[in-house]
Specification:
The chain is an alpha/beta fold and about 250 residues long. The protein has a single domain, classed as Rossmann fold, CATH 3.40.50.720. The chain is built from eight helices and seven strands; from the N terminus they run βαβαβαβαβαβαααβ. α2 links the parallel β2 (about 35-40) and β3 (about 60-65). The N and C termini lie far apart (about 45 Å).
Length: about 250
């Protein structure tokens, strides 16, 4: 009997927003390792170019500021026409703001919502238009532990990521009948430069994180990347509308 690798993404083209560093880069790397060609997106061209040098020949990049919602339709059309059909979309790009809720301004709140929620919807909407024509595709959203339980001083971020999980379910119901699966990953506390800096400068917060994580350690960026590979692959062909916590048990820890 011939063995078929259901995780193989050969021939698939993935678009990863915020793919130049952190979880986005780890995701792009995992996708390339499993055969996909990848286009990474971000605002910093030098960062994107460096990332592609490491990712290799199956990668390319596009510079765009997704906070500028008006450019998104033309941008997605350009990717489709110049690079190739988008089979996999990973909505990873996002921003955060750590500040006590009573001091968050309307402008600050709106900016988080625009980048983390409105831009994600706009990109998804435009990609879905092309996926619907082909009647196939996989969309993966990136949420957060902030949408699983209460975290202080990140009210706007929490609002945006909670919306992403609701959007995942709504879009899955609407698009899945046409062959487009929509899923979401909620990363736990992952060992990135940003999280390491935040936790190492706040021993009390770090102890709390570790205390409620049954596996007793931080995750690795690759853990998120491989979860994306699963959801994007044929191995998950009957999976849609789920929020997969990749968190060492943090979301259910006591």
């Amino acid at each position: 009997m011939e063995y078929i690798n259901q995780f193989d993404l050969t021939g698939k083209h993935a678009l990863v927003t915020g793919g130049g560093k952190g979880l986005g880069f780890a995701t792009a790397k995992a996708l390339v390792e499993n055969g996909a060609s990848v286009t990474i997106v971000g605002r910093n061209e030098a960062l994107l170019r460096s990332a592609c040098e490491e990712l290799g020949q199956k990668s390319t990049y596009k510079v765009v500021d997704l906070a500028n919602l008006s450019v998104i339709p033309a941008f997605i059309k350009e990717v489709e026409e110049q690079i190739g059909a988008i089979d996999i979309l990973v909505n990873n790009a996002g921003i955060n703001l750590k500040k006590e809720a009573i001091n968050v301004t309307d402008e600050e709140f709106s900016e988080i919502i625009k980048v983390n929620q409105q831009a994600v919807f706009a990109v998804t909407r435009e990609v879905a238009k092309f996926m619907l024509q082909r009647e196939r595709g996989s969309i993966v959203m990136i949420s957060s532990m902030a949408a699983q339980y209460g975290l202080p001083k990140v009210v706007a971020y929490t609002a945006s990521k909670t919306a992403i999980e609701g959007m995942t379910r709504s879009l899955a119901v609407e698009l899945s009948p046409s062959g487009i699966r929509v899923n979401c990953i909620a990363p736990g506390f992952i060992a990135t430069d940003m999280s390491a800096k935040a936790l190492n400068n706040d021993p009390e917060r770090k102890a709390k994180v570790m205390g409620r994580t049954p596996m007793g350690k931080l995750g690795e960026p690759a853990d998120i990347g491989y979860a994306v590979v699963y959801l994007a692959s044929n191995a998950a062909k009957y999976v849609t509308g789920v929020v997969l916590c990749v968190d060492g048990g943090n979301s259910i820890g006591f």
